[in-house]
Write a structure and sequence with these properties.
The chain is of the alpha/beta class. It has helices at about 10-20, 25-45, 80-90, 135-150, 160-170, 200-205; strands at about 5, 50-55, 60-65, 70-75, 95, 100-105, 110-115, 125-130, 130, 150-160, 175-180, 185, 190-195. Helix 1 packs antiparallel against helix 2 (about 25-45) and helix 2 (about 25-45) packs across helix 3. The chain binds 1-O-pyrophosphono-5-O-phosphono-alpha-D-ribofuranose and uracil (URA).
């Protein structure tokens, strides 16, 4: 069964309010995506493996810890880019590999248009996409990452629905889902309620 982690931190609640507000302009929207992505990544990275290293401080040698894994961030284009940029700043050695899906508005099915993976997959992958709506895009994305050869995968999203969580958990029970909020439901066009509207359009100012 997938592990579902919904962040309840006051800072998450605070930034979500601005993110959801229809009057928030794109530049502030991007700032909020960034803040929330960092908080999500902090939580999702809690069990990353570490190794011991010796560091020379200005005064003496000391044993410290540093990350001991190849971590791939996989944004689902377009909207996931706002999250992966922020997380790569927090974890500079992470690698960013891209997957492009758009949702066909009539069938609501994800349509793949881009994939940039290497021959050598990372050991751990965070798939990042602000919106987990029907769950179709996330399920397809996770499927691609598994076929690439990554066994340890977490999904990081800003807003999820119960429907999306159920679909991902049933299709991929081995992955962890980290989200800032679990919203009420989908509307008749599969938009999240209360949600925030179209994440990609709000990030890239293409409304
Ligand atoms: C949005 C969002 C997800 C997808 C979620 O992308 O960023 O990728 O919809 O919907 P689902 O869970 O029902 O599959 P969109 O298709 O709007 O593309 P964009 O990021 O290019 O705007
Ligand atoms: N994609 C979005 O950007 N917003 C939604 O509410 C659903 C899918």
């Amino acid at each position: 069964m997938a592990r579902i982690v919904e962040l309840k931190h006051p800072l998450v609640q605070h930034h979500l309010a601005t993110l959801r507000d229809r009057s928030t302009p794109p530049h502030l929207f991007r700032d909020q995506v960034r803040h929330l992505s960092l908080l999500l990544a902090y939580e999702a990275s809690a069990s990353l493996p570490l190794k011991s290293v010796t560091v020379e401080t200005p005064l003496m040698s000391t044993e410290c810890m540093e990350l001991d894994c190849r971590l791939g961030l996989v944004p689902i284009l377009r909207a996931g880019l706002g999250m992966s940029d922020a997380i790569q700043d927090l974890i500079p050695q992470s690698e960013v590999w891209h997957l492009g899906f758009y949702r066909d508005e009539s069938t609501l099915q994800p349509v793949e248009y881009y994939q940039k993976f290497s021959d050598s997959p990372p050991e751990i992958a965070f798939i990042v996409d602000p919106m987990l709506a029907t769950g179709g895009s996330a399920c397809e994305g996770i499927d691609r990452i598994k076929k690439w050869g990554v066994a340890n995968i977490s999904l990081l999203c800003l807003i999820a629905t119960p429907e999306g969580i159920e679909k991902v958990s049933e299709t991929h029970p081995d992955i962890d889902i980290f989200t800032c909020a679990i919203d009420d439901r989908l509307n008749e066009n599969a938009y999240i309620l209360p949600g925030l509207g179209d994440a990609g359009d709000r990030i890239f100012n293409t409304l």
